Amino acid sequence: MALQIRADRATTRRRSIPGTGGRSAAVFLIPFFALFALTMIAPVVYAVGMSLFAEKRSGLGFGGATVEFVGAGNYFDVLSNRAFLEGFARLAMYCLLYVPTLLVVALALALLLDAAVTYARRAFQLLLFLPHAVPGVIAALIWAYLYTPGVSPIVRALASGGIEIDFLSVHMVLPSMVNIAVWEWAGYNVIILFTALQTVPREILEAARVDGAGEIRTALSIKTPLVWPALGVALLFTVIGSLQLFTEPKILSSVTTAVTSTWVPNMWAYDAAFNRNNLPQAAAASIILAVLAGALSWAVTRFTSKEPTR
Amino acid sequence: MSAVLDTPAPRPTPTPRAAASDPAGTSARAPRPRRHLLRRLPAIAGVNGLLLVGSAYMILPLLWLVFATTKDAKGLYSGEAFAFGGAFFANMAQLFTQDGGIFLRWLVNSILYAGFGAVIGGFIALMAGYAFDKFEFRGKNAWYGAVLVGVLIPNTATVIPLYLLAAAVGMTNTFWAVLIPTLCNPFGVYLARVYSAGYIPNETLEAARVDGAGTVRTFLRIGLPMLTPGFVTIALFQFVGIWNNFMLPLIMLQNRDLFPSSVGIALWQSQVQQNPEFSTLVIAGSFISILPLVIAFVMLQRFWRSGLSAGSVK
């Protein structure tokens, strides 16, 4: 039956009867790709074009500004800008801290969920996932208050235990931000990993038990390697997500001076566009970020697909 | 009710362990014989205890918000974080009357941006995913590759380029400047393709074709009803994504009347340094603006669960 249909499809395709070929597919695809061209390709192309020019003002300010072609000049300027590079260093630190923390927390919770009492699982899944329903702005605001001395029950509890921590100080604000992101995204990844754990064949777990492996041993050396592909997907989206860092520092900058207006590259680009009115440099910074994100995603995909799949 | 909701559960993933045939009735998850139960008790308590700790970490900040909504500015600093105050209705009244009741407007804007974006964008993604699954055409893999590249480009990397382009054509500070970019949802196309492959048997479409139905008609009459659960999932995730969007509206809009709630609340927060009483506004506004999402997630559990399981398969 299946063969028959495949054969039918092949012949219809060759005879190009309306209904299977490119023309009818186009009807369905044109809306999406028109939007894709308009909202992803065109802006990036335009930004690349713009980033190759710079506004030059004559020394005395007479005669207005002229637009000059500067080639890669803006890119050199951005990449040699101290604040931009510091922002990048912070972003790198953030990724190094956030990505492993998130994945370890999510994997641990998923493995616990997999070992939990069956009837409790649905409730735990919902509880763990709920923070994901909270918009990034609100999550950052809630935690901003939970970090503020006087309001925060956490600061108060720690202080009564003799521990004085300023979560919003120059040194603590980065880990504090990582905590906000982990809170927002852990549950999402727990569900992805838990779903993958559900597909681990029962026979393998049975065999492990017969061989005398305990629950923890089974979790670490059998279940974890088997969900590697799902972990790879989680890693990919976590890396892409962490490069977007903007909302949390933007919100925290309203409660602490430790977060400057150019704290991460996205904020630097925002500042270039709206406070320094240097649109070409903002464009160049955005393109640099997009290229970096593309390269990192490609690297992560290569890295994870090399591992044995399933 | 739940049985009805659960029947057409999409299973793009390989057969879950629970559903595997189990003739001996000894599922790996089934309780072990009784004599082991006592020995296992510490392990069970440990596992569920750790899960409780994890859940508390996720829930306590939300609970704090609920309690904080009931307090006035003085109560916020009182130190009784997890106790009710008496200012809930006063806070709500202040929230909805501040600046001529602008918060309600922000809320409506959020609903419009997210609602239109989710329904229209979700439908466009659904059509594209359906076409990638059911049609053969030249360059299919290359076009699909473009979609996947779209999935991998971080949103914020295109926000400033979008602003530059919108500024060039004079579109900034309009409703469309925020709505149109959110209609493009490459991840939705990916999900729609997975759903289309899982929900719609090719034989059904063949039958419709033999009966002489056109492609568009076939899609609307046969494909769309079968894809409805998938559409809800895609639209749900897109709704949440747009509701949560911050950088795009922040950059595109200067007119406060067009703000979504996220940008509006952030604007109030930026004034807290000068006017500490704004903090009750910020907290009340945060509470109101997460309420619809939390309710949606609790009601639509089946959809986000299936969406996430489809997303985890490469």
Radius of gyration of chain B: 24 Å
Return the CATH architecture of the largest domain in chain B.
Orthogonal Bundle
> What is the architecture of the largest domain in chain A at the second tier of CATH?
Orthogonal Bundle
Number of strands of chain A: 2
Biggest chain pair contact, residues each? A-B, 117 and 112 residues
Strand order of the largest sheet of chain A: 1-2
General form of chain A: globular
Distance between the termini of chain A: 30 Å
What is the count of helical runs of chain A? 14
Radius of gyration of chain A: 26 Å
Structurally, the number of domains of chain B stands at 2
Please, what is the CATH homologous superfamily of the largest domain in chain B?
MetI-like
Name the beta content range of chain A: under 5%
Pairing-aware structural class of the strands and helices of chain A? mainly alpha
What is the CATH top level name of the largest domain in chain A? Mainly Alpha
Structure description:
The complex is a heterodimer of chains A (310) and B (314). Chain A is mainly alpha-helical and 310 residues long. Chain A folds into two domains: 2-51, no CATH class; 73-306, MetI-like fold (Orthogonal Bundle). Helix content of chain A is 72%, strand content 3%. Chain A is built from 14 helices and two strands. Chain A has helices spanning 2-15, 22-51, 73-79, 82-115, 118-129, 136-147, 153-160, 173-197, 202-210, 215-226, 228-243, 247-252, 265-274, 279-306, and strands at residues 53-57, 65-69. In chain A, a hairpin with a 7-residue loop joins β1 (53-57) and β2. In chain A, α6 crosses α8 (173-197) and α9 runs antiparallel to α10. Mean pLDDT of chain A is 84; it is low at 1-19. With 314 residues, chain B is mainly alpha-helical. The model of chain B is unreliable at 1-32 (pLDDT under 50). In chain B, α4 (88-134) packs across α7, α4 (88-134) packs antiparallel against α10 and α8 crosses α10. Chain B is built from 14 helices and no strands. Chain B has two domains: 34-61; 91-311, MetI-like (MetI-like fold), CATH 1.10.3720.10. Classes of the chains: A mainly alpha (310), B mainly alpha (314).
